[in-house]
Each structure stands twice: as C-alpha cells, then as structure tokens.
Specification:
The complex is a heterodimer of chains A (about 120) and B (about 110).
Chain A (H helix, E strand, L loop, with lengths): L2 E5 L2 E5 L4 E8 L5 E7 L5 E7 L5 E3 L5 E5 L4 E6 L8 E8 L10 E2 L3 E6 L1
Chain B lengths: L3 E4 L2 E4 L5 E7 L5 E8 L3 E10 L2 E4 L6 E3 L9 E3 L8 E8 L9 E2 L3 E5 L1
Parallel strand pairs in B: 2-11
Antiparallel strand pairs in B: 1-3, 3-8, 4-5, 4-9, 5-6, 7-8, 9-10, 9-11
The chains are: A mainly beta (about 120), B mainly beta (about 110).
Chain lengths: ~120, ~110
Amino acid sequence: AQSVTQLGSHVSVSEGALVLLRCNYSSSVPPYLFWYVQYPNQGLQLLLKYTSAATLVKGINGFEAEFKKSETSFHLTKPSAHMSDAAEYFCAVKGPPRNSGYALNFGKGTSLLVTP
Amino acid sequence: NAGVTQTPKFQVLKTGQSMTLQCAQDMNHEYMSWYRQDPGMGLRLIHYSVGAGITDQGEVPNGYNVSRSTTEDFPLRLLSAAPSQTSVYFCASSYSLVGDGELFFGEGSRLTVL
C-alpha cells in the first residue's frame, strides 16, 4: 500500500525564517499527495494537494509544495514563518484502491514550533 | 455551512461500557470514514463507507462497529470500551471516491476510557 514518511517529528523555526517540512512517499504509481494542518484542539484542514497537473503546488496561508518524482518527495515550504503557523502538519497519500480502499494514508505528523 | 459534525466532543467511559460516536455531514458525500489519532502515531483508519449500506474495515477495526443507513450519518460504536481505545476520533468525508478528492474532517471527539 502507498505510504508516506515525515522526517522530523518536531521542527522549530524563528518567526520570519523559512519553513521546510519533509515528506517522502512510497508508491509504485504516480500518487495523489496531500498536506493537512491541524491547529490545537481542531480537526484537520487541507493545505494543498498534488494531482499531477503541476509539480509545484500552491496552497493556503502562503504554503507550497514541490513534487519530485526522482526523489519521491513532496516537501512543504513557506518562505517566512508566522507565529500563527504553529501547528501539527500531516502528509498523506492516496493511490489506486488497495486493501484500505479509498482511504488516505497519513504520516505520523510534524509539530511546527515558531519562536519570536 | 456545517460540514462534518461530530458529537460528543468529549466523553469519559469506564472499561466495559459502550457508547456511540455520532458523525453527520451535509455535503452529500458518498465516502465517509473514521480515524483515530494517537500521539506519535498519526491518523489510523478504523472503518470507512463508500455509500449507504456499504462499510469496510480499515487498519485498526477491532473493538469498533459501524453502519451506514443514510448518506448523511456514519456512527461509530464501541461495544465494550477498553483503555487502549483512549484516543481522539475523527470523522471525515469526501466527494470523490477515487482520484484527488480530499477529506473534510470534523473537529474530533476526545474519548477517555478509565
């Protein structure tokens, strides 16, 4: 089944610094990839998704991600961190229906801390 | 727009008790699912449904039952709660069964089993 690995369970950046959250996927066919954000005590909200239309995907709140097939990666970036970006970020993958049907398979998450 | 609504938001149970977590969506989505979220584990799929009357197991189905009698509702039942079921539960729905359809999530139900 398709899976994703998020490198780094905790990432800390200074306000105004570059945000880079890493995600590598495992899939035998071109996947659909997603990034979600979870603010404290809330549900997950879609940041962006890759659907093969373009390798560089722009999302909400200034985030973007680049699909690199050669590296099997879909890293999330933001040029300048804001205090309000502090949250948990999840990478997820969906490929052709397998044992889990049409479910998204999530990574374990990366907690982003933004310091003043 | 209500989106995906989960109730209750918080619940404390004793071992062996039963309960039902409710989930309703008003977006006419065919696909609905339940995930549990545990620290360091990400989200793991419990059960899912691709339409009324159709359900199937996900990655961690043991101890949970589901049914889908209508398009809108997808309740999750714990028949005999165990401390290992202490978790945050999320219901999610999608308009697309395949392809790039993303999931829309409820705000979660935090369950503690003593």
